[in-house]
UniProtKB/TrEMBL annotation:
It comes from the Bacteria. Catalyzes the epimerization of the S- and R-forms of NAD(P)HX, a damaged form of NAD(P)H that is a result of enzymatic or heat-dependent hydration. This is a prerequisite for the S-specific NAD(P)H-hydrate dehydratase to allow the repair of both epimers of NAD(P)HX. Its EC number is 4.2.1.136, 5.1.99.6. Binds 1 potassium ion per subunit. Residues 223-492 form the YjeF C-terminal domain. The gene is nnrE. (6S)-NADPHX binds at residues 58-62, 126-132, 155, 258, 312, 365, 432. GO terms for biological process: metabolite repair; nicotinamide nucleotide metabolic process. Residues 10-215 form the YjeF N-terminal domain. This is Bifunctional NAD(P)H-hydrate repair enzyme. K(+) binds at residues 59, 122, 158. Pfam families: Carb_kinase, YjeF_N. Belongs to the NnrD/CARKD family.
C-alpha cells in the first residue's frame, strides 16, 4: 500500500511520537533528512550553493536544522538562509534550530541573491499554513516562480493545502517545487488538483517513526498491485464469448466519433465483442476498426451485458428514455459525459441510479461531478476526495473523478488517487477512451472497483508511454491511445511489451 494521510492524522502521529522523544528530536530528524536529500541532489554538481527559506513555524525550523547540518557536513556547500520570522514567537524547537544555524556560521540574507543557487529549499510553510500567502513571503514566492530556480519543498510546497491540493486562497500563490520531501507520511494534497504540478516528485521521510503509530490511511495512491488479482493470462481454450460484450450507447447526430473512440478503446483493451448502439443513423461500420458492430439504439436490448452510456449520447428524449430503461436493469454500466448530465438534471434518473444493484462506474469530470452534487465545479476541485466520496455514497457506485490526480472512490469512503497520466490527456476524446476501457474490463469480469482502478492506471500509463515516445503531450490524440493501452495491458499480464 502507498498510504496517504490527512494533516490531522499527521499531527496526531507527531503528538504521540513527540511525547516519547526529547524535545526537538523530530525536527532534528526532519532537518537531517532534508540535508541528506540536498546532498544527494547536489552530487556531481559544480554549483555548491544552497538557499534555504525559513518561515515562522516549525517548517522554518526544519529548514534551519537542515542549514546547520549542511554547513557542518564538510561537503563544501555555501549555505545561505532567508529567515522570514513573522511577528509571533518561534516555537522552542525552531528557536533552538535558529541557534544551531547561527553556530554553524550559516549566512543570513535579507533578499534573494543575484545568481542562481544549485537548489532552493522551501521551508516557509508546511502543514500549518492557515491562509493565502501575503507580504514578503508572497513576494518571494512569486519572484522564485518567475526565476524558475530548482526547488526542494520541505513537507509541503508553501501555499499548497496539504489535504486538498488546492492553492490556499483567495487569489493565493504557491511555490512550484520540482521535488517535495514529505515528513512523517505522504499527504493527499501533494497528488491531486494543483498538487501534482506544485509538488513535483514526492519522496517520504518517515523520520524513523514506527508503523504502529499510524492510523489507517485516509486514502492511497493507485498502483498495479491494487488490481493485479484481475490480470490473468488467457486460456488457449477461450473464445470471443469468454471476454464479454460491450455496447456503447451513444453516437447521436454529429457525435459518432465519441462512441467510436469508446468502442475502439473497449476493443483494444480486450472485450470479446464491441457494438455501438447508435441513437441516430450514422456510419454503418468503422472502416478503421471493422470489428465494431453497429446497431439501432432505439431497439437495442439494454438489460444484459455491459453498457457504456454517454459518449456522444446527447440529451434527446431517446437518450433520456434509454437511460431510464437501462438504470434498473441488470447490465453492468459505465456512465459518462451526457449520461451524467442527464442524471444530474433528473431526480427520477438519480433515484434509479441510487437503487441499482448491478456493477456501476461513473466517470465524471469536475463539471459533471458538480452537476451530480448540485454544487459548483470550483467546490468540487477544492476538495476532490470529498466530492468523489460524496458521489460514490449518494449513488452507490464506483466513481472516477477525472482531472490531474484522478480520484477513484467507492461507497463507504475508500479513495485512491491515480499517479499516471500527463497533460496530453487534457484533450477531446480521452474521456471516451477511459470509459471504453472501464466497460471492457467490466465485460471481462473485473469487479467494478478493480476495473476503475485498472482503467485509470492503464489509461494514464498509456499516455505516459506515448509521451516518452515523443507523441505528445502537445497534440496527443485520443485515437492514439487505444494501441498504447493494449501494449500496457499485455505487458501487465504477460510481463513483456506486446502488440505495441
Ligand atoms: N508537527 C509535525 O508533525 C512535525 C512538524 N514538522 C514541521 O513543521 C511543520 C508544521 O509546523 P507548524 O505547525 O509550525 O506550521 P508551519 O511551519 O507550516 O507554519 C505555521 C506558522 O505560520 C503562520 N502562518 C500560517 N499561514 C500563514 C500565512 N499565510 N502567512 C504568514 N504566516 C502564516 C502560523 O501562524 C504559524 O506561526 C510541518 O509541515 C513540518 O515541516 C517537523 O519538524 C517534524 C514534526
Ligand atoms: K514548505
Amino acid at each position: 500500500m502507498k498510504p496517504l494521510y490527512s494533516v490531522a492524522q499527521i499531527r496526531a502521529v507527531e503528538q504521540l511520537v513527540a511525547a516519547t522523544l526529547e524535545p526537538g528530536a523530530l525536527m532534528q530528524r526532519a532537518g537531517q533528512a532534508a540535508a541528506n536529500g540536498v546532498l544527494a541532489l547536489l552530487a556531481g554538481q559544480a554549483n555548491r550553493s544552497v538557499l534555504l527559506l525559513a518561515g515562522p513555524g516549525n517548517n522554518g525550523g526544519d529548514a534551519l536544522e537542515a542549514a546547520a547540518n549542511l554547513a557542518g557536513a564538510g561537503a563544501g556547500i555555501d549555505v545561505a538562509v532567508i529567515y522570514l520570522a513573522g511577528s509571533a514567537l518561534a516555537s522552542a524547537e525552531t528557536a533552538q534550530a535558529l541557534g544551531r544555524a547561527h553556530d554553524a556560521q550559516v549566512r543570513f540574507l535579507d533578499a534573494l541573491p543575484d545568481s542562481a543557487p544549485a537548489l532552493v529549499v522551501d521551508g516557509l510553510f508546511g502543514i500549518g499554513l492557515a491562509r493565502a500567502l501575503d507580504g514578503a513571503a508572497r513576494v518571494m514566492v512569486e519572484a522564485l516562480n518567475a526565476l524558475g530556480w530548482p526547488v526542494l519543498a520541505l513537507d509541503v510546497p508553501s501555499g499548497l493545502d496539504a489535504d486538498t491540493g488546492a492553492i490556499v486562497g483567495p487569489d493565493g500563490v504557491a511555490l512550484r517545487a520540482g521535488r517535495t520531501l514529505a515528513f512523517i507520511g505522504n499527504k493527499i494534497g501533494l497528488h491531486t488538483f494543483e498538487g501534482r504540478d506544485v509538488a513535483g516528485e514526492v519522496e517520504v521521510a518517515s523520520l524513523a517513526i514506527d508503523a504502529h503509530y499510524f492510523p489507517p490511511a485516509s486514502a492511497e495512491l493507485n498502483q498495479a498491485a491494487l488490481f493485479a488479482n484481475q490480470l490473468k493470462p488467457r486460456a488457449n481454450n477461450s473464445h470471443k464469448g469468454s471476454f464479454g460484450d460491450v455496447a456503447i450507447v451513444g453516437g447521436a447526430r454529429g457525435m459518432a466519433g465519441a462512441a467510436m473512440l469508446t468502442a475502439r478503446a473497449a476493443l483494444y483493451s480486450g472485450a470479446g465483442r464491441v457494438l455501438v448502439a447508435a441513437l441516430d443513423p450514422g456510419p454503418a461500420f468503422d472502416s478503421v476498426q471493422p470489428e465494431i458492430m453497429f446497431r439501432d439504439g432505439a431497439t437495442y436490448p439494454l438489460g444484459v451485458g455491459t453498457l457504456v452510456m454517454g459518449p456522444g449520447m446527447g440529451g434527446s428524449a431517446l437518450a433520456m428514455d434509454m437511460l431510464a430503461r437501462a438504470l434498473p436493469g441488470a447490465a453492468a454500466l459505465v456512465l459518462d459525459a451526457d449520461a451524467l448530465n442527464l442524471i444530474g438534471a433528473s431526480v427520477d434518473l438519480q433515484k434509479r441510479l441510487g437503487a441499482r444493484t448491478a456493477p456501476t462506474i461513473l466517470t465524471p469530470h469536475p463539471l459533471e461531478a458538480a452537476r451530480l452534487l448540485g454544487i459548483s465545479s470550483l467546490e468540487v476541485q477544492r476538495d476532490r476526495l470529498a466530492a468523489a466520496r460524496a458521489i460514490a455514497n449518494r449513488f452507490n457506485a464506483i466513481v472516477v473523478l477525472k482531472g490531474s490526480g484522478s480520484v477513484i472512490a467507492a461507497p463507504g469512503g475508500a479513495a485512491v488517487i491515480n499517479t499516471s497520466g500527463n497533460p496530453g490527456l487534457a484533450s477531446a476524446g480521452t474521456g471516451d477512451v477511459l470509459a471504453g476501457i472501464c466497460g471492457s474490463l467490466l465485460a471481462q469480469g473485473w469487479p467494478a472497483r478493480e476495473a476503475a482502478l485498472g482503467a485509470v492506471w492503464i489509461h494514464g500509463t498509456a499516455a505516459d508511454r506515448l509521451v516518452s515516445q515523443g507523441i505528445g503531450p502537445i497534440g496527443l490524440c485520443a485515437s492514439e491511445l487505444p494501441q498504447a493501452v493494449r501494449a500496457v495491458l499485455n505487458e501487465l499480464v504477460y510481463g513483456t511489451a506486446k502488440n505495441g
